[in-house]
């Protein structure tokens, strides 16, 4: 994150809570299937989510009958999650994970969707390792945004990069990120070697939905109003020339790893 204030940057998402809930993409159901299998989840499993936002990923577990404890630093995002899932077995706590008083609780699964890179390290890995029961799993997953080779994709990526609001990545850059994450988990001293699963998928956006997606990104939120307007006009024109739609391609990547605290260790 360069010279930017990472703490301030991480707090900006709360400013766009409603947009975040409506326009952030979800995650493939096959990914949840894999977590269920690897973590041997049951309806009685204790599950913690880090950086829950408005409950986008939470929903995928709640609709399968699991009970969640969700940690989310943004008060507006947390309240949105509470209201949206008020009929489900979930509790939202407004706190940063590293500041949260866990009161000695233990969990069968800790997961984080699109958020764990905002947790300071090595404190985050250490705390997760301590909170997991013997044999417990940490599951981290991200939608990595794949840069395609078409002219429209390159022009969109260029516009977003110029304003520093969003970056699409080539496959080799995504794989470098995967390798770094595997090395961090393995080298933390708190976990075994992680398993990595990849789920390619895509979605289609019109100009309005893509720009509203950008409104959930901390870079766009930090722009001056005139810059937001100029970029929005530019993107409307680009997507309009492409028939009014933009295909976005993702490689949703799951890292799941067992804590090094089992009786066999």
Question: How much strand content do the residues show?
Answer: 15-25%
CATH architecture of the domain at 6-143 and 170-200 and 250-258: 3-Layer(aba) Sandwich
Order of helices and strands: HHHEHEHEEHEHHEHHHE
Number of distinct helices: 11
Distance between the termini: 36 Å
Name of the CATH homologous superfamily of the domain at 6-143 and 170-200 and 250-258 = Vaccinia Virus protein VP39
CATH top level assignment of the domain at 6-143 and 170-200 and 250-258: Alpha Beta
Features:
Rossmann fold; single chain; 7 strands; 11 helices; 265 residues; alpha/beta; 7-stranded mixed sheet
What does this 3D model show about the protein?
InterPro entries: Diverse_substrate_MTase (IPR051052), Methyltransf_11 (IPR013216), SAM-dependent_MTases_sf (IPR029063). This is Methyltransferase type 11 domain-containing protein. Keywords: Methyltransferase, Transferase. Residues 48-139 form the Methyltransferase type domain. The chain has 265 residues and is of the alpha/beta class. The chain has a domain at 6-143 and 170-200 and 250-258: Rossmann fold (3-Layer(aba) Sandwich), CATH 3.40.50. The chain contains 11 helices and 7 strands. Strands 3-2-1-4-5-7-6 form a 7-stranded mixed sheet, sandwiched between helices. Helix 2 (17-23) crosses helix 9 and helix 7 (151-162) packs antiparallel against helix 11. The protein starts with 5 loop residues before the first helix and ends in a 7-residue tail after the last strand. The model has no long low-confidence stretch (mean pLDDT 92).
């Amino acid at each position: 994150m360069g010279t930017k204030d990472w703490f301030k940057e991480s707090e900006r998402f709360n400013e766009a809570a409603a947009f975040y809930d409506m326009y952030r993409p979800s995650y493939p159901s096959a990914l949840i299937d894999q977590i269920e299998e690897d973590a041997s989840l049951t309806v009685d499993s204790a599950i913690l989510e880090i950086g829950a936002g408005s409950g986008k990923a939470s929903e995928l577990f709640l609709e399968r009958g699991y009970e969640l404890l969700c940690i989310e630093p943004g008060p507006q995002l947390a309240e949105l999650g509470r209201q949206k899932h008020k009929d489900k077995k979930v509790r939202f706590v407004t706190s940063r994970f590293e500041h949260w008083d866990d009161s000695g609780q233990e969990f069968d699964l800790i997961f984080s969707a699109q958020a764990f890179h905002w947790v300071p390290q090595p404190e985050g890995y250490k705390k997760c390792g301590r909170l997991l029961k013997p044999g417990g799993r940490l599951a981290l997953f991200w939608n990595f945004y794949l840069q395609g080779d078409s002219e429209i994709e390159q022009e969109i990526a260029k516009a977003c990069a110029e304003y520093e609001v969003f970056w699409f990545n080539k496959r080799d850059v995504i794989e470098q990120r995967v390798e770094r994450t595997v090395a961090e988990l393995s080298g933390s001293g708190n976990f075994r070697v992680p398993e990595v699963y990849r789920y390619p998928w895509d979605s289609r956006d019109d100009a309005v939905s893509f720009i509203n997606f950008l409104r959930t990104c901390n870079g766009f939120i930090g722009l001056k109003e005139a810059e937001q307007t100029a970029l929005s006009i530019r993107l409307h024109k680009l997507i309009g020339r492409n028939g009014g739609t933009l295909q976005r391609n993702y490689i949703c990547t799951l890292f799941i790893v067992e804590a090094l605290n089992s009786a066999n260790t």
